[in-house]
Write a structure and sequence with these properties.
- The protein is globular, with a radius of gyration of 19 Å.
- It is of the alpha+beta class.
- It is built from eight helices and 13 strands.
- α1 runs parallel beside α2 and α2 packs across α3.
- It is 36% helix and 25% strand.
Length: 330
Amino acid sequence: MPTVLKASCKAPTNIAFIKYWGKKDEVLRVPENSSISMNLDKLFTITTVEFSPRFKKDSFQLKNEKTEVKEQQRVFKHLDQIRAKARITYKAKVMSVNNFPASTGLSSSASGMAALTVAAAAALKLKLSKKELSRLARLGSGSSCRSIPDGFVQWQAGNDHKTSVAVSLYPPDYWEILDVVVIASQEKKDISSTVGHSLAGSSPFLPVRLKMMPEKIKKLKMYLKQKDFSKFASLSEQEALNMHAVMITSNPSLLYWTPNTLTLMKQVQRWRQEGVNVYFTINTGQDIHLLTQKKDLNKLVSKLKNLKIVKKIIVNKPGRGARLIKKHLF
C-alpha cells in the first residue's frame, strides 16, 4: 500500500420533496419512512481526504468556518468506519469547503458526509458501487445517502443496513424543475437534525404521518413521471408543512422557522394568487426552497429582490450526485 493516499470529491446538497423524519435505527440511521429528493447543481461541498502513516491523529478543517468538537468527532467516527472497511489504521487529514452557509437548513450534512465518504473510500482504493457508497454515507448522515446517486433520487427506507439505500429515479436532465434557494438568515440552528430525529416519536402526529406516507410517495412518483408541476410542487409544499407539524408538536417542541421564514411562506401563497406558479418547501432549518419552472423564474426573482429580508438567491437545476475531482484543497 502506498504511504500517502489522497482523493477529493464534490458532492451536492439535496432537497427532499418527500422528507424523512424519525429513525427506526439510530445507529444505522435507518429512517422511519422512504423519501424522494433532487440533487442541486449550485449548492455543494468539496472535500479532500489524505491518509498517511505520518499523521499522528485525525484532523478536520471546514474552510472559512469554525467547527465544534462534536462535528469533528462525527467526521472522525465516520473515518473509522471507512478505515475498518479498508482494513487500515492510517490517520487522516480532511479539509472541506461549502459554497453556502452551513447548519441553516440547506443540507450541509448531506453534501458534507457524501463528499467525505466518496473521497475517503477513493483515497483508500475501495472499489464500491453507488449503492455501497450510499449505504456507507448513510452511516455518517442519513440524508447524505441521497447525495450519492444522480438527479432525482429515492431513499428506500428498508429495515437494515443492506435494504436502506438510495437509488436514482431519473437523471438530472429528465425535468428542468427549478429550486430557488432563498437565504434570509445565516444563523446556525439551535438544535441539530440528529437531535431532532430522536424527538420525532414524542409527537402524537408521527403515527398519522407514517400511515399516510406510502400513498403520498405513490402520488409524488406519479406526478414526477407525468411531469405535472403544479400537483408535484403542491404535494411537496403540503409534505413540508406536515413534517414541521410533527416537529412543532414534539416534546420539547422544535421551532426551526424564523419570522423571515414565515414572511416568505406567506408571500409565496400570495404570489400564487397573483399568477406566479411557485411553491415552498423547507428542510430542518429556517432557509426556504422555492419550487418553480423556467417560465415563472424572472417574475419570481423580481419579487424576491423587492423583499428586504432576502440576503441571497441561488437558482438550482437538478444536479449530478457525488463525484471525484482532480483538484485538491491542499
